[in-house]
Design a protein that fits this description.
The two termini are 24 Å apart. The chain has 10 helices and 5 strands, in the order ααβαβαβαβαβαααα. The chain has 286 residues and is of the alpha/beta class. Helix content is 46%, strand content 8%.
């Protein structure tokens, strides 16, 4: 079967599934907190018969703030009635201080004796996920060099993993990195430029295979916002989190409505089924 590499031409769409899974494992990184979050929180919820169907998955640095309370507060501040009807279909699959490597770890799981762990990608394809929100990167930043190219490759691999095991109708939002107190603003700006360029590159490479599925959502934080958006050198305060959700939640609702309209308006392109072995694998497995 050979070996798989992080392919930037076809985004690993034609790699053998077993090889691609090994590629994910090779770049995943174990951390005790990430492992316990998946074992004790994420996976039990996915296995529970009481878990509502999931249409939105949040991946990345996961504040302990109450998402519903933040949505209600942000809505009232904008003079709107709080709308949290879709909240029970949101699955928070992040962990505090997440890196791209930690996300890959939880997505693919662990086969190491003594810490065996199912991967989220083994369970989430059985859910009707329409929207993935990937919010990470700040913990991959270097204080003097910003976001290294090696981290950009890890982000690319993370996006490839979501493309591999998700419904072809779903969309992926990759959010920008917030400014920090412990590093120059221009390094964060450069990092966000790299993330935006990566999203554009992946979309350009896949444009002949399928419609645009990946979008970059800039972090709305201004440089002058640090004093009240951050609770320490890098993590959002409750005020900052509420402000962020006030921007993110309407985008999520619009994205879900757009995906619903697309699903209702057309069938899956049969050319995609013939050309994409992972589409066939997904539906054979699930």
């Amino acid at each position: 079967m050979g070996i798989a590499v992080i392919d930037d031409r076809y985004e690993n769409r034609f790699s053998h599934p077993n090889l691609f899974k090994q590629l994910l494992r090779d770049h995943a990184h174990y951390s005790r907190h990430s492992h316990l979050e998946a074992r004790d929180n994420h996976l039990p919820r996915l296995r529970s018969s009481s878990q509502p169907h999931i249409d939105t998955v949040l991946l990345g640095d996961n504040p302990h703030n109450d998402l519903g309370a933040a949505i209600s507060t942000a809505s009232r501040a904008a003079g709107k009635s709080p709308s949290t009807d879709a909240l029970h279909n949101v699955f928070k699959a992040g962990a505090e201080n997440d890196t791209y490597q930690n996300i890959l770890y939880r997505l693919v799981g662990d086969q190491t004796p003594g810490r065996e762990l199912d991967g989220l990608l083994d369970h989430l394809p059985h859910q009707p996920v329409k929207l993935w929100v990937l919010s990470a990167g700040t913990n991959n930043l270097h204080r003097t060099r910003g976001l290294p190219d090696s981290a950009v490759k890890l982000l690319r691999l993370t996006i490839q993993a979501l493309l591999w095991r998700s419904n072809p109708e779903s969309v992926i939002y990759v959010t920008g990195i917030f400014y920090r107190r412990d590093m120059p603003d221009h390094l964060v700006d450069e990092a966000n430029g790299k993330i935006r360029a990566l999203v554009n590159s992946i979309n350009a490479g896949l444009e002949n295979m399928e419609r645009q599925r990946i979008f970059f959502l800039p972090a709305p934080m201004k440089r002058s916002d640090k004093s009240f958006w951050l609770r320490d050198h890098k993590n959002l305060s409750p005020v900052g989190y509420t402000a962020w959700i006030g921007v993110l939640w309407p985008v999520m609702i619009k994205a879900l409505n757009t995906v619903d309209a697309g699903i209702a308006g057309r069938d899956i392109d049969p050319r995609l089924v013939r050309s994409d072995p992972f589409y066939r694998t997904r539906h054979r497995d699930g």
